[in-house]
Design a protein that fits this description.
There is one protein chain. The chain folds into two domains: 2-44; 63-287, MetI-like (MetI-like fold). Helix content is 76%, strand content 3%. The protein has 16 helices and two strands. Strands 1-2 form a two-stranded antiparallel sheet. Helix 1 crosses helix 15 (257-283) and helix 3 packs across helix 10. The chain is globular.
């Protein structure tokens, strides 16, 4: 009985220590996240008016959400443009980051320098620096516009894709700058792949292209999912995002106010969650394959040993 009491006391102490360590995070979560989240839900269901006496709220239910889709064409247009741009930009950033990570994973000198160069734009291009680059046109490629690439593209694409594709080319350098963090994520994932898998594939006669599809991509599914989620959230919360700018402007507008902006924020958040859910459906589930046990014959063992001798 005494031993059980001591064990219970010890477990109670451990749980108490755990709660003490979690207490600062819990307080911060309640004050800076949970409370504003609940407040935004209340605002989205009310018409909020700021007066000299304070804040007044009139309950309108789903009226704010109905007004957004029936009376406000600007938000719907910007939201649809952002979603189309996300569909175009996300694969470009992920593919470019994966290619750069594979190149950096090769046996090259000054790996740390190249990793720093690819990650440096993420630190430099932020806040006022990013706005200055956009205003001066430093994120565009003048040759694309000079040789009439925009006009050639607009002739083959439907009307609803012309503007997103034009924006994609006009901000191509900026989009490639966003690939710094995904490149580091993919580089870390490539280093965790066991080298014996490449050796076994080489012994079976597989080329580098086959090894990429059969070894690299299946092993990188989790990292690709993390990269997709990061890029989606990063683009959705960017300072140059037109949807974020519109919500911020409506929040300070006398005619719109906090109610409309809160409702827009919730619609926008649900769209981002849907995009993340789609990424999870594509890369989150691993295919279950039946593993067949195979044993090497004597001739295969000799070939493997001779190949190792040639390498050494």
């Amino acid at each position: 009985m005494k031993k059980r009491k001591k064990i219970l006391k010890l477990s109670a102490r451990h749980s108490l220590v755990g709660w003490i360590f979690m207490l600062p995070w819990t307080i911060g979560f309640v004050i800076f996240f949970a409370y504003p989240l609940i407040q935004s839900v209340v605002f989205s269901l009310n018409k909020v008016v700021i007066t000299a006496q304070g804040r007044k709220m009139n309950y309108v239910g789903s009226g704010n959400f109905a007004d957004i889709f029936t009376k406000d064409a600007a938000f719907v247009e910007r939201l649809s443009n952002f979603l189309v741009e996300l569909i175009l930009e996300l694969p470009l950033i992920i593919v470019f980051s994966l290619v750069i990570a594979i190149l950096l994973n090769q046996k090259v000198k000054c790996k740390g320098l190249f990793r720093t160069l690819f990650f440096l734009p993420i630190i430099v291009v932020s806040g006022p620096v990013l706005n200055m680059l956009l205003n001066t046109g430093s994120t565009t490629i003048p040759l694309i516009e000079q040789y009439g690439v925009y006009d050639a593209i607009s002739g083959f694409l439907p009307s609803y894709l012309q503007q997103p594709v034009q924006t994609l080319f006009s901000e191509l350098l900026l989009i490639l700058w966003y690939s710094g963090v995904p490149t580091l994520i993919f580089f870390a994932g490539l280093q965790k792949i066991d080298a014996s898998l490449y050796e076994a594939a080489y012994m079976d006669g597989a080329s580098s292209w086959v090894s990429f599809w059969k070894i690299v991509l299946p092993s990188m599914r989790g990292m690709i999912l993390i990269g997709c989620i990061y890029v989606t959230v990063f683009l959705a919360t960017s300072e140059i995002n037109d949807v974020i700018i519109l919500i911020r402007d409506y929040m300070l507008n006398v005619n719109k106010g906090f109610g409309i902006s809160a409702a827009m924020s919730w619609i926008y958040s649900l769209c981002i969650l849907a995009a993340i859910g789609l990424c999870y459906l594509l890369f989150g589930h691993e295919r279950k394959t039946k593993v067949k046990h195979s044993y090497m014959t004597k001739s295969e063992i000799r070939r493997y040993q001779n190949a190792k001798k040639k390498k050494s």
